[in-house]
Structure formats: structure tokens, C-alpha cells
From TrEMBL, chain A:
Annotated Gene3D superfamilies: 1.25.40.390
Major location (coarse): membrane
The protein, known as: RagB/SusD family nutrient uptake outer membrane protein
Family assignment from sequence similarity: Belongs to the SusD family.
Ranges for domain SusD-like N-terminal: 46-255
CDD domains cross-referenced by the UniProt entry: SusD
Alphabetical UniProt keywords: Cell outer membrane, Membrane, Signal
Nucleotide-binding is among the record's keywords: no
Domain RagB/SusD: 326-490
InterPro entries associated with the record: SusD-like_N (IPR033985), SusD_RagB_dom (IPR012944), TPR-like_helical_dom_sf (IPR011990)
Locations listed in the record: Cell outer membrane
Taxonomic lineage from the root: Bacteria, Pseudomonadati, Bacteroidota, Cytophagia, Cytophagales
TrEMBL record, chain B:
Gene3D superfamilies reported in the protein's UniProt record: Carboxypeptidase-like, regulatory domain, TonB-dependent receptor, beta-barrel domain, TonB-dependent receptor, plug domain
Membrane as UniProt keyword: yes
Keywords carried by this UniProt record: Cell outer membrane, Membrane, Receptor, Signal, Transmembrane, Transmembrane beta strand, Transport
Coiled-coil portions: none
Protein name listed in UniProt: TonB-dependent receptor
Lineage, highest ranks first: Bacteria, Pseudomonadati, Bacteroidota, Cytophagia, Cytophagales
Keyword set includes rRNA processing: no
NCBIfam families in alphabetical order: OMP_RagA_SusC, SusC_RagA_signa
Organism superkingdom: Bacteria
Organism: Pontibacter anaerobius
Length: 491, 988
């Protein structure tokens, strides 16, 4: 402020010197005023506050903040990088269910088993899943001390955070780690504290595959303990985590871990739960919202925008039309003319290929089925077959076949044959819901099944390298974190 | 605060403060040129020590009222020596002025002042209004191209009014902005792209709001001595734009007009229908499949480019009236500029009005205003990195498809939009209203001591409307899609500058003290509509689904600055600058930064020992400067804070999630620049050489340091990393021929800048497919590719360099930096010739040694793995053993999705005849009969021809506008237009 003082002094000097000249005096006076005003407002000018964001310290400081953070957590799952479209496409395009026919090389890389560690979509999934984990970690750490929430309410919120974190680690581990006994020994880095200040914790190593799945299991079990059976409304019960969500995911998890008994236990609980029942019309699961089939259905409105319709629908219908069904899969799905699931296709005439119509709503408001009852039946069928209960397995399988409008399979006694039938059913039932590739890897079929797959705009492709049953750790984190070890096929 | 200022200025203008001027006597006379005795119009005649003055008329006559006794008249005219004559008792004073041939005597605008070039210690280049007059450019920043050594200018797009890439002495930042600071009539203006609609990366230039014809001069401040007075925002250089002002004398009316046509010099080089089908068949056969097309010879051939490119019109009208009395100087001007882009649906229209006034209400006091109101309208297109654009469609749509289906609807293909639909159905409008105005008062307190205060506003309102009807892919899925955006950017700036010039014996000093406050607020409101009743309804009010949002942000900066200039006998020169800036963007502990600079100059030719030098050596000056400047741009307003944002709703439940990590230590990016320069006059100073060598070291880069994303964050903006720019600049300005009837002035400049990242936390890749890599030891804009070594002549398979030397090529690891977008050297060459009444100027502009990525070719030379049209370069493919080519056999493996072959990286060197203009000035005798003082007609060509090996549409296209880290890439952008036009200038 020295300059201002000098201005004032200069002005006063002038005042004495040129007192006769009225205007000069006035000017000098005003110059002084101006300087003072300037000095005062310089502080104002420097005090700017964000208007669209809040400080991290106050984001979760009360009940409202905790609830908003929880919504922000589900928002991560909604992202097009994750369940909004990407993870589903990754699961189907890496299999023989969906194929890339457009310009987007990243899915073409997956389609043709030439995936690169710089693959954008792989990186997007990794980034988004860990964002979800960070939000969950914030909730898990910051909600317990809050004063304005009841214990019950806290459990409800924290339980959901555990569930989403468990789901994210599950997805990360199956994509980048592998399946015990099939492929991979390394899991993914496990982060359980919120990220605030850059320190060593920002540069983790990969946990072992067992530790990774162990984290999934413990998060889901903690969630199961804390979550309520239901939320206030049916919509919330199906669009946010409840005990049923945890049980359903556990029935899936134990198939990955080769523990069929536990898978059966949790599947039993779901199938016995009166909230959940198969809907008669298969198409309704997708054309309606929140049917009784839905266990965890991500809710989208026109502001959220699930992007999956855009990838599968041709440009004449407002989509990008980059990803289509493999013609071989279309033929497989329509082999039985009675199969209602074979009706869920459209024909893209100018390309002579078919596309799935599971996601057919305009304005990108298709909901996404993270887990639904149909899968749980098939989880139990598979687990039962594994434990030698072939009859029980066929009963579950035929429940699903019956709903699809096709004849039951009867008279099978061999558990392996039953498993093959169940796996085939799984492929048809859950097509375009992001399961196929991971199911093939989990069941050890990938290297056999994924050979000689004909593509519309290229030669046949094969998954020849067993090490390519897992995706590469994204290049940006390999660059940024020296503690990470790359998967074998991408070194 | 604002109220107080208002009172201040209201009070200043109170007429009661004005004292009547004493009555006097009248002096008249004629001012002529000493050389030929011809009358000199426009000479400033001033009563010394006052602001009383006039300018001479057309015949060199003047008339001035002076006090009854005493007084001295000062005669000033650009290019002539100043003369002072004591009035004594004379009533007629005729004066002849001697021309001043010394270039170094010209007065140039500097930061917060003006200075005789002779005593300038800094590196700065002037671009005068003559050089840029009557050129068909929407935006003045484009006009700097090739004019100033070391200033690199390129275009992101040929779309009228589109964003421009300007670098002064290289890029000095990675995440921060590397754009220079623009200062118009002393006001640092808002120069960021304000368009909020992403049409594929194309940006708009806010400098286009200014009418080029209003510009008196542009000064590019390059070294730290010139820029440090702008402190924290000066690291990328400063462009000072000074607009024209009135001067005493009779009203001068200038009318200018030009009109012309423009088209694209090159169109997409794609194959015809039969060739497309034959090539596709070849790919299918090579991939072991049956041919796709049965009868390629019968295919139709559609020329998609023909349907969307056009010959556009360009026209410009300028009118200005300027003049003044001894109390008031005025200039008012109006401009209308209209440019149709080379593609249907892209237009730019500008209307501006300017009022620049200077009042001398009382002795020693000057108050004035500079006011610009500008309104722009743009019709915009999706293009660049956007699959819905017309340009992508023009490249991609196979030539064997018709424009329309048999039912009359648009043919649809793949993910792309039908180009005709893209230009005709999409409705994207942007209008900008900008007010840029300042009021100032300047008072000479005592002889040489002045106080100047100013208050300025720079307000922009941008309204954008986008409507996609159901005939477009974008609108089909949502039954019509509408987007409406209002963006407001408000800046105010208050400055006070106290300056004092004095001399003691042969020591001259000028001292400056100043303060600045600036506040900038941004706000945006957006509405989105879907589900429209029909294509006739375009406003969101009719949409069944409506969404909206709004956002706001702000920043402020407070500064003190000082400068001390010193010279001894015009021989030893020194300048010291210090600026202290505080910015709201940084943490409270790191707000203040100090930016000093020092410069020394030695006019060797003034030394006695210089006498024996041969005659052809004229003025010689050696300059050296060192200083530190800063950069605070390119980061968000609240980058230092750990923030959670609110736009994370889950369906109808409002949600929050983390946006960024806190970094309370965040501070300025700092650039230390050393400059050594030589100004040399030869042959009576008819040849002037200006040479500079500089080293710019930027440290504490505002860098988004990549974090392991397992943290939930991609990066943390830190002051981490360093880079340097080193280069030399050479400008040669020569009056090659100077005779009565024939003059030839040549202006050549060349510059080389070597840019290198010297410190980085970890290498990182940017842009789709990781095309660019930032790594220590490499320049910015380095391309990251698989180095293609050739094609096996025996098999036709693509061959790559085995980077890790393990004996086989693996796309995951064998990727490396294979080039960069920075030129080895670049510059321009201007020639101006006058023969009697004819004038001819031509301007060549060049860039050498830059790599340019032809990304269009990557998509269109696809070997059959995509189904879009081929570029003709595909015809060079390997077909049979023995073929030697870089384009491999058309198999899926050779064009696999994970390959980034370096063959698409081309030599981007070019030389372009940017401008050629031929003019004729009508004989004065003829035009004066109709009251015209000067009339000139001219024809001009712009981008007339280009010499380059680059095969894309335009080697000058540099980037995807919204990603400053990706430069040297052409990706579905419109090329610079070739313009032919004619026009005239009249003055009365």
C-alpha cells in the first residue's frame, strides 16, 4: 500500500502548491480517494469463492451431504465408462456375442484380441471404477462421526458404500486380475481410504488375486450385514443396494471362487425372497422399468443418459451403430424359432447385420441390469451342477428356458453336459448384459470357444494367447505408478 | 468501489471545472517538404508546452490561435524531423521539414507508454496498419502471421471466425495457456474461446470482435524487458493493439470497401464409386472372403464434396470519420464484414461501431474514451473431431452411394451423418455482443509528471442455439434435439499510472508507478430440449423433455508495477521493470508474485571510436535483457482448492462427488527469459537488421501431474516440471530501391525456436489413441507412433521398427516418439513496390521442418477394415511381389485397430503466397474535382498458392481447437480459403 500513501502525499503537496487552481485540487483529492478505494477493493478482488462446487471438507458434513455423496456414488456406476455402457460392451465384444463394425478402434481391438495397454475404453473403465471406490471410501470414513444421522440410517448409507465398493473390486478383479485356477495370479490395487493428499498411499502395488477377491467378499459380506432388506419404495429397493443385492452378487462371486455351496446358499435366499420373481414376458425386463425380476437395476432418466443404445442402434435410429451382434451369435440365438430372446434383434439393412434391441428407449434412458433374478437362477443351476445335483440344476435351467418359451431339457444325468447346457443358456439369456467373456473365462471355455469367430468386416479371429484372458493394466497408470506390474501378455 | 469510480469520472467531466482559454492572436503558414517543396498534409502543429494544436490541411496550410505574447510552435510529422520555431512577432510562419531517414527514430507503443525505438532496450516488433489493411481475415490475430519474427501463427480451422493458434517465441506452458496476452488500448482483454457448444473441437476467436480497420498498430512484446510490466500474465508475450484516434484538423472521412469470392484450394481426395467397390473387393479377397460387390464397373459415382463445398462471398465495408479541434479529437468508425465459409452453412458476420474521443477540457488535462461495440453472428457447422460433421461425412461416405434414397430421404451410412444433411439440416447459431470500453483521464501535474487513471469494461454476451431436427442422426434418436446457451463474461479493470520524465544534463530518466485491479466473472446458463412436436418447432419451450443448468465462476487480480528507464546521451540505455501481482486463483499464502526485469542497451554507433567505421555501417545497437514473467492462465479459477461438485445426480436424487484434490501450494508458472539483440543499420540505414537470440526457461509449470488413477483422480495440478524454448530471430527490412517513381521495400523475417520439456513427473500421452506423448527431453507436440519402416516387397506386409530390440514387433511396447509439430524455422517475406500510381505487394509465409499428421488419411486409407470411402492414397497399396510402397497390402492384419503407423505423419513444411495485392491510386487532379483527396482501387488474392509435400487439405491447419496439447494434426477441419477480391479506399 506504499504506493497509495505516496499518491496521497503527492496529492497533498499539490494541494498546497496549486491551491488556487480549483480543478487541480479536485483532481488531486479525487486521485487520493481513488487510491483509497483501490486499496480497499484490492482485497475484494482477490476474494473469490467457487459457486458451483464446495470444499471437500464440508461435502459430507451432515445427513444431506451423506445422501448426496451416496447418489454421487451410484452416479459413478452410471457413467458410460462403467455400467452406462462400457463394461457391458467389453464383456460382449470380447466374446463371440458382439462385434465391432464401426470406426471405434478401441472396441475393435477387444473384438479382435489385439487389445493394447493404451486402449481408451479399458482405461476409462479402470478410472471410473476407482472413482467409485474413492467415493465409497469417503462415505465409509466420513459418515460414522456425523451427528445428525441415526445409527440405522448410517448403516443403510455405509452398507451401500460397501456394496458398491465390493462390486467395483469384483469388476476390476475379473477384468484385470483373472479367475483363480484359470488365469492370473495378481489382482488389483486395494484402496480403502479416501484420497486427500498425495503420499505413498497413492502409489499402491497390486494385491494378489486371492486378496483382491477377498476384498470383494469382505465388502459384500459387510454390506449384507449393514444393509436393510428394503428401502422406502420399491423403486429404491431395486435401484439401490439392499441385502438382496449383496446376496445376489455373492451368488455370482462364489462361482468365480469355486465355492458352489455358498453360491447355492445365497441364490436360495434370493429365490425365496418374495420381492423377486421372474416376469412372464422376457422383453418386459428391458422395455419396462423395475420389474419384479430386477435385483439391482441402475436407474436412468433423461439427464443421466445411458449411452448403450447409441452403440448398438444404427445411425438411422439416432445411434452410432458401431457395435452389432455377431452374425454367428444371431443365428445361435434364433436357432429355436420359439425362443423369445431371439426376437430381441433388429436388422441393420445397409450393413446386413443384426443388433440387439434390449436397449431401445429413445433419449438414452435405458436402465441397466447389474444383476437380475434370471442370472441368479442360472448361478444356482451352475452351482448345483458343480455339486452333482444335476436334477436341481436342470430344474433351475428349465425355469429359465420355460420363460424363454422353449422346451425344457430333460433326461440329462451327466454333470458336465448339464453345465454345458447351463453355460449355453447363460449366453443366450444374458447376452449384451456384459457377462459373456467373463463367463467363458471363468468356466475355462474361452480358449476353446473363442476361435474362428467370423466377423463382418474382417477375417475370422481367435483368442489364442491364454494370457489375453485378462485386460492390460492401462498405460497411464503403468507410467504414473512404478509399483504396478503389467499383465504377462502386455509386457 | 465502482460507485466511487463513477463519481470520480462524473466529477471530472463537470464543465464548471473548465477555465476559459485566454484570447490570443492568429498564426498561419504552410508546411512543406524540404526535399521537393511539396505541401505536407497532416503535420501536427503544436504550441509548445500546451495541448493547443492543429494539423495541416491538404495544401499544407495551418492556422492556429496563440497567446498574444511569446510561444514556440512545434511541427511534427511521421518520417520527418521535428522542428521548433519561436513565434516572436510573426503572424505567418512557413516551415519546411527535413525527412528523417533513421528507422530507429520511430516512436513505438510499449506497455504503459511509448518510446523512441532508438532508446528501446527490449525486443518487440511492430505491425503497422498499412501492413494489415484490407486483408480478408475475420480475426486480427490471423494478420500477425509471418509479419513478426518469432511469432508463429496457424489456424485450427478455415471456418470463418474460427480459433487461431498464436505463439510468441514458442509454447511456454503445458497445461497453462500458451496464448499471448492481448491488450487493446491499454486494456487486457478477455481472449478465451467463449463458445460453450462442442461441435467437434472447433473454437471461435474472440479477437474477431475487433475490426482490423480500426487498428493503428500491433506491437508484439517478446522479451522479458518488454513484457515484465504485465507480470503474471506475460510469459507468453504480449500483443498490444492500439486503435486509431483522431487528431486536430478538418474532418477526414475514409470509406473502404472490398468484395470477393473464396473457395477451398483443395478438396477431399477420395476415389470414385467403381474404384471404391474394386478396392473393397480386393480387401475381402485378401482376407479370405468372397468379394463384397458383384459388379464394381456398374457402380455409381457420387461427388460428396461437390454437394457441400461452395464458392463463398466475402465483403467488407468500413467507414470512419476523424478529426478534431484544439479541445476535442474524435474518431468514429463503423464496420460490416460478411464472410461465407467454403462449406455451406458456415458464415461469419461482424458489425462494429467505435468511438474514440480525446478531450482537452483545460490545460494539461486530457480525458477520453475508447469504446467498441461489436456484434458477431456465426452460422456454425459440426466438423473436426465429430462424426456428425459434414467434413467427416464427405470423407467417409462411399462414392457408390447416392445423395438421397429413392424416397427422397437422405442416404444414411455407418456412424456418419449425410454431409448434405449436416450442412442443410443442422441449425447452429452463435451471436456475440461485446462491449469493450474505457474512460481515462490524464493530467500533467508538473512538467513531465503525469497521472493517468482509467476504468475499463470488457463485457461479452454469447448466445448460442443449436437445433437438430429428426432428419439428422443426432435428432432422430430424441425426436429433435435443441440446445440453448447463454454465456456472459464480465471484466472490469481499473488502472492508475503515475509517470515522470525528466533529464539532468545528459542523463534522461522516465519513471513509472502504477496499480491495477481487475475482476472477471463468468456465468453460463444452458437449456436442453428433446422430443419436439415436429421439425417446425425449434425452441426448447416446445420440447416435451427439458433440462437446464447454470454455472458461474470468477477471478481477480491486483497489481503494482514500476519501471525506471534511463539513458545517457542516447548511448547507454537501461530499463528496470518490477511488477507485483496477486491472483485469487492461488492459495492465500502464494497469492503474491514478483516479476522483475532488467535490460541494457548500448548504441555503439554513437561512440567516438565508431567514427572510423566504413560509411555503409549506420546505427548499431546492442541490447541485452533478463527478466521473469508469469502465467496464471489455463487452470481453473479455484484450482488450489479440494472440491466436490454437484453434477452427480443419480436419476432424481441430487448427488455430489469429488472434482479435484487440493493443492494449497499452487502458485504462478515462472518464465525466466534472457535475450541478446542487435539492431544494425546499413547503407544509410536503408537496410535495417534486427537479430535476437533468446533462452526462455519456464519452471514451476502449472502441470496436471498424472496421478495413479487408483486414487480416484487423474491428476493434480502442481507447480511441477520445466521446459525451455531457445531460438533466434532475424528480421531484415530494406528499402531496396528508392527513387522518385519507383520504390521497393522488402521485409524478411525468419525465426527458429527449439522447444524441449526438461522436467516432468512422468511421461504422459494425450489425445485419442495416445497420438501425442509428453516426455522429458522431447519437445511439446511430439507424435507417438509405431515407426513404419516400410512394406515387405515380397509379401506386402507392413513393417515396423523393433524399438526394444527383442527381435519382434509388439504394438504394446514398440511405440516411440517419431517427430513433432514444431517447425525448424518459420517466417515471412513481404515486398511492397510502388511505381508511380501503382502499388504491388506480395507476402510469402513459410514454415519448415514441422511434422504434420494427416489424420484424415488414417481413417480413409483403411485397407478395407472400415467400410468408408478410400482416399486416393490407398491406390498406392502393395499388390504384387516386387511392389515398393509404404501402403501395405489390404488385409485386416496390416490395418489392425491397434496399429498407429507413422506413415500418416507427413512433412508439413510449406511456403504460401499468403497475399498478393495490386493497387492503383487515381490521379489527385482527377479525384479532387469531386472532393476526394485520395482514391485507391485494388485487387487482392489470399492463399493464392502453396508449395508443400503435405498431402492433406491444408498444411497450416494445426490442431483440434479445444485440445491445446494436440497440435500439428489435421482432422476433418475446413481448409483455409483461397480468396480473390477487389476493393477501393476513398478519403475525403
Amino acid at each position: 500500500m506504499n504506493i497509495y500513501r505516496r499518491f496521497i502525499e503527492a496529492a497533498e503537496k499539490l494541494k498546497r502548491k496549486t491551491a488556487k487552481e480549483n480543478y487541480t485540487l479536485r483532481l488531486a483529492y479525487l486521485a487520493g480517494v481513488l487510491c483509497l478505494a483501490g486499496a480497499m477493493s484490492s482485497c475484494e478482488v482477490l476474494d473469490q469463492e467457487p459457486q458451483a462446487e464446495v470444499s471437500e471438507d464440508i461435502a459430507i458434513s451432515n445427513k444431506k451431504g451423506a445422501q448426496a455423496a451416496l447418489a454421487g456414488l451410484y452416479d459413478q456406476l452410471q457413467s458410460g465408462n462403467y455400467y452406462g455402457s462400457n463394461l457391458l460392451i467389453m464383456g460382449d465384444i470380447s466374446s463371440d456375442v458382439a462385434q465391432s463394425i464401426g470406426t471405434w478402434d478401441f472396441y475393435r481391438e477387444m473384438d479382435t484380441y489385439l487389445i493394447d495397454k493404451s486402449n481408451l475404453e479399458t482405461g476409462n473403465f479402470w478410472t471410473r471404477a476407482y472413482r467409485a471406490i474413492n467415493v465409497a471410501n469417503n462415505i465409509i470414513e466420513q459418515v460414522p462421526p456425523l451427528a445428525d444421522i441415526t445409527e440405522e440410517e448410517k448403516n443403510k448409507i455405509i452398507g451401500q458404500a460397501y456394496l458398491v465398493r465390493g462390486l467395483a473390486y469384483f469388476d476390476l478383479t475379473k477384468v484385470f486380475g483373472g479367475v483363480p485356477g484359470v488365469v492370473g495370479t495378481l489382482g488389483v490395487p486395494i484402496i480403502t481410504k479416501p484420497s486427500r493428499k498425495v503420499d505413498e498411499s497413492f502409489f499402491p502395488s497390486r494385491a494378489s488375486l486371492e486378496e483382491s477377491y477377498g476384498q470383494v467378499e469382505s465388502d459384500l459380506l459387510t454390506a449384507l450385514e449393514m444393509l436393510p432388506e428394503a428401502h422406502q419404495t420399491d423403486l429404491l429397493t431395486r435401484s439401490q443396494a439392499v441385502k438382496g443385492t449383496a446376496r445376489a452378487l455373492l451368488s455370482r462371486l462364489y462361482l468365480y471362487l469355486g465355492k458352489p455351496e455358498q453360491a447355492i446358499t445365497y441364490a436360495d435366499a434370493i429365490i425365496a425372497d418374495p420381492k423377486y420373481s421372474l416376469v412372464a414376458s422376457f422383453a418386459n425386463i428391458f422395455s419396462s422399468k423395475f420389474t419384479t425380476e430386477a435385483i439391482f437395476e441402475l436407474n436412468f432418466n433423461s439427464a443421466d443418459q445411458s449411452g448403450i443404445n447409441n452403440w448398438y442402434y444404427p445411425s438411422s435410429l439416432g445411434g452410432r451403430g458401431d457395435i452389432m451382434a455377431h452374425t454367428s451369435f444371431y443365428e445361435e440365438a434364433t436357432a429355436d424359432p420359439n425362443d423369445v430372446r431371439g426376437k430381441m434383434f433388429g436388422y441393420y439393412q445397409s450393413k446386413d447385420v443384426h443388433y440387439p434391441t434390449k436397449y431401445g428407449k429413445t433419449s438414452a434412458i435405458d436402465n441397466i441390469q447389474i444383476i437380475r433374478l434370471g442370472e441368479v437362477y442360472l448361478n444356482r443351476a451352475e452351482a448345483r451342477a458343480k455339486t452333482g445335483d444335476v436334477d436341481g440344476a436342470l430344474a433351475d435351467l428349465n425355469t429359465i428356458r420355460q420363460r424363454a418359451g422353449i422346451a425344457p431339457i430333460e433326461g440329462l444325468t451327466d454333470a458336465q453336459e448339464a453345465l454345458r447346457a447351463i453355460w449355453h443358456e447363460r449366453k443366450l439369456e444374458l447376452a449384451f448384459e456384459g457377462h459373456s467373456f467373463f463367463d467363458l473365462v471363468r468356466t475355462g471355455q474361452a480358449l476353446n470357444e473363442l476361435t474362428g469367430i467370423p466377423r463382418t468386416n474382417g477375417p475370422d479371429v481367435n483368442l489364442a494367447d491364454p494370457a489375453r484372458q485378462v485386460f492390460p493394466i492401462p498405460a497411464f497408470d503403468m507410467d504414473a505408478n512404478k509399483n504396478l506390474v503389467q499383465n504377462e501378455a502386455y509386457k | 468501489m465502482k460507485h466511487l469510480l463513477l463519481i470520480f469520472f462524473l466529477t471530472l467531466s463537470v464543465p464548471s471545472a473548465l477555465s476559459a482559454f485566454a484570447q490570443g492572436r492568429t498564426v498561419t503558414g504552410v508546411v512543406t517538404s524540404e526535399a521537393d517543396g511539396s505541401p505536407l498534409p497532416g503535420v501536427s502543429v503544436l504550441l509548445k508546452g500546451t495541448t493547443t494544436g492543429v494539423t495541416t490541411g491538404l495544401d499544407g496550410n495551418y492556422q492556429l490561435t496563440v497567446p498574444v505574447q511569446g510561444g514556440t510552435l512545434v511541427f511534427r510529422y511521421i518520417g520527418f524531423q521535428i522542428r521548433e520555431v519561436e513565434i516572436g512577432s510573426q503572424s505567418t510562419i512557413n516551415v519546411s521539414l527535413a525527412s528523417d531517414e533513421k528507422l530507429l527514430k520511430e516512436v513505438v507503443v510499449t506497455g504503459y507508454g511509448e518510446q523512441d525505438r532508438k532508446t528501446l532496450t527490449s525486443a518487440q516488433t511492430s505491425v503497422s496498419s498499412e501492413e494489415i489493411a484490407n486483408l480478408p481475415a475475420a480475426s486480427s490475430d490471423q494478420l500477425l502471421q509471418g509479419r513478426a519474427a518469432g511469432v508463429q501463427v496457424a489456424s485450427n480451422t478455415g471456418t470463418p471466425g474460427g480459433g487461431v493458434f498464436v505463439r510468441v517465441r514458442g509454447s511456454s506452458s503445458i497445461n497453462g495457456s500458451s496464448d499471448p496476452l492481448y491488450v487493446v488500448d491499454g486494456v487486457p482483454i478477455q481472449a478465451n474461446n467463449l463458445s460453450g457448444i462442442d461441435l467437434g473441437g472447433g473454437t471461435t476467436s474472440p479477437i474477431a470482435d475487433i475490426n482490423p480497420a480500426d487498428i493503428e498498430s500491433m506491437e508484439i512484446l517478446k522479451d522479458a524487458s518488454a513484457t515484465a510490466i504485465y507480470g503474471a500474465r506475460a510469459a507468453n508475450g504480449v500483443v498490444l493493439i492500439t486503435t486509431k484516434r483522431g487528431s486536430s484538423g478538418k474532418a477526414k472521412v475514409s470509406l473502404g470497401m472490398y468484395t470477393g469470392i473464396q473457395n477451398a484450394p483443395r478438396l477431399p481426395d477420395v476415389v470414385d464409386g467403381p474404384t471404391y467397390e474394386r478396392l473393397m473387393n480386393e480387401a475381402f479377397i485378401n482376407n479370405g472372403k468372397a468379394p463384397k460387390y458383384a459388379n464394381p464397373d456398374g457402380a455409381i459415382s457420387t461427388d460428396w464434396a461437390d454437394a457441400v463445398f461452395r464458392t463463398g462471398k466475402i465483403s467488407n465495408y468500413d467507414l470512419s470519420v476523424s478529426g478534431g479541434t484544439d479541445k476535442v479529437h474524435y474518431l468514429v468508425s463503423a464496420n460490416h464484414f460478411n464472410q461465407e465459409g467454403v462449406m455451406i452453412g458456415s458464415d461469419f458476420k461482424r458489425n462494429t461501431a467505435r468511438v474514440n474521443l480525446d478531450f482537452y477540457p483545460v490545460d494539461k488535462l486530457k480525458v477520453g474514451t475508447s469504446i467498441l461495440y461489436s456484434r458477431n453472428e456465426r452460422n456454425r457447422l459440426r466438423n473436426d473431431d465429430n462424426i456428425s460433421g459434414a467434413m467427416p461425412g464427405t470423407f467417409a461416405f462411399p462414392a457408390n452411394l447416392p445423395y438421397y434414397k429413392p424416397d427422397g430421404s437422405y442416404t444414411k451410412f455407418s456412424i456418419f451423418e449425410n454431409p448434405i444433411a449436416a450442412v442443410k439440416e443442422s441449425d447452429i447459431q452463435m451471436s456475440t455482443n461485446r462491449f469493450l470500453g474505457s474512460v481515462f483521464a490524464e493530467y500533467e501535474i508538473t512538467n513531465g509528471l503525469r497521472l493517468r487513471s482509467s476504468f475499463s469494461l470488457d463485457n461479452s454476451t454469447v448466445l448460442e442455439d443449436l437445433y437438430d431436427n429428426t432428419l439428422l442422426n443426432n435428432g432422430a434418436g430424441t425426436n429433435g434435439f435443441g440446445l440453448s446457451l447463454a454465456t456472459q463474461n464480465d471484466n472490469w479493470i481499473q488502472e492508475n499510472v503515475l509517470s515522470y520524465e525528466f533529464a539532468r544534463n545528459e542523463h534522461s530518466f522516465n519513471v513509472l508507478l502504477g496499480t491495477t485491479l481487475q475482476e472477471s466473472a463468468f456465468s453460463m446458463t444452458q437449456a436442453v430440449g428433446e422430443q419436439f412436436p415436429s421439425n417446425d418447432f425449434r425452441k426448447i419451450t416446445s420440447a416435451a423433455v427439458q433440462r437446464s443448468s447454470s454455472n458461474a465462476s470468477s477471478w481477480g487480480i491486483a497489481s503494482f508495477f514500476t519501471r525506471i528507464g534511463y539513458d545517457y546521451k542516447d548511448k547507454y540505455l537501461a530499463t528496470i521493470n518490477v511488477r507485483r501481482d496477486a491472483s485469487s486463483r492461488f492459495g492465500a499464502d502464494n497469492r503474491w508474485g514478483t516479476f522483475p526485469s532488467v535490460a541494457l542497451g548500448w548504441v555503439v554507433s554513437e561512440e567516438a571510436f565508431f567514427e572510423p567505421m566504413p560509411d555503409f555501417v549506420g546505427d548499431v545497437k546492442i541490447r541485452a535483457s533478463y527478466g521473469i514473467t508469469g502465467n496464471q492462465s489455463g487452470i481453473s479459477d479455484f484450482q488450489a482448492l479440494g472440491l466436490w461438485g454437484g453434477s452427480s445426480a443419480y436419476a432424481d436424487i441430487p448427488g455430489v462427488s469429488p472434482v479435484q484434490l487440493a493443492n494449497p501450494d499452487l502458485k504462478w508458472e515462472t518464465t525466466a527469459q534472457t535475450d541478446i539483440g542487435l539492431d544494425l543499420g546499413l547503407f544509410n540505414n536503408r537496410v535495417n537488421i534486427i537479430a535476437d537470440y533468446y533462452v526462455k526457461k519456464t519452471s514451476d509449470l502449472l502441470l496436471a501431474v498424472p496421478l495413479p488413477r487408483t486414487s480416484g483422480f487423474n491428476s493434480l495440478v502442481q507447480n511441477y516440471g520445466a521446459l525451455e524454448n531457445k531460438g533466434f530471430e532475424l528480421a531484415v527490412i530494406a528499402d531496396v530501391i528508392k527513387s522518385e517513381d519507383f520504390t521497393w521495400n522488402a521485409n524478411f523475417n525468419i525465426a527458429s525456436n527449439k522447444n524441449k520439456v526438461t522436467k516432468l513427473a512422468a511421461p504422459f500421452n494425450v489425445y485419442n489413441r495416445d497420438l501425442f506423448r509428453y516426455e522429458e527431453g522431447y519437445p511439446l507436440y511430439s507424435f507417438y507412433f509405431h515407426e513404419q519402416t516400410g512394406v515387405d516387397p515380397a509379401t506386402g506386409d507392413i513393417q515396423f521398427a523393433d524399438v526394444d530390440g527383442d527381435g519382434e514387433f509388439d504394438p504394446n511396447v514398440d511405440r516411440k516418439i517419431v517427430g513433432d509439430a514444431n517447425p525448424d524455422f518459420f517466417g515471412g517475406f513481404t515486398n511492397t513496390l510502388n511505381y508511380k500510381a501503382f502499388d504491388l505487394s506480395f507476402f510469402l509465409q513459410y514454415s519448415y521442418g514441422n511434422d504434420q499428421l494427416n489424420w484424415n488419411r488414417f481413417f480413409s486409407e483403411h485397407g478395407g477394415v472400415r467400410d468408408f470411402n478410400f482416399m486416393k492414397s490407398q491406390l498406392d497399396r502393395w499388390q504384387k511381389p516386387g511392389d515398393v510402397t509404404m501402403v501395405p497390402k489390404m488385409t485386416a492384419a496390416n490395418y489392425a485397430g491397434n496399429l498407429r503407423p507413422s506413415r500418416f505423419l507427413e512433412d508439413g513444411s510449406y511456403m504460401r503466397l499468403k497475399n498478393i495485392s495490386l493497387g492503383y491510386t487515381l490521379p489527385q487532379a482527377l479525384v479532387s474535382k469531386v472532393g476526394i483527396s485520395r482514391a485507391r482501387v485494388y485487387i487482392t488474392g489470399q492463399n493464392v498458392f502453396t508449395v508443400t509435400k503435405y498431402t492433406g487439405l491444408d498444411p497450416e491447419l494445426t490442431g483440434i481447437g479445444d485440445n491445446p496439447l494436440a497440435q500439428g494434426i489435421e482432422f476433418y477441419s475446413l481448409p483455409q480459403p483461397r480468396v480473390f477480391m477487389g476493393g477501393f479506399n476513398l478519403s475525403f
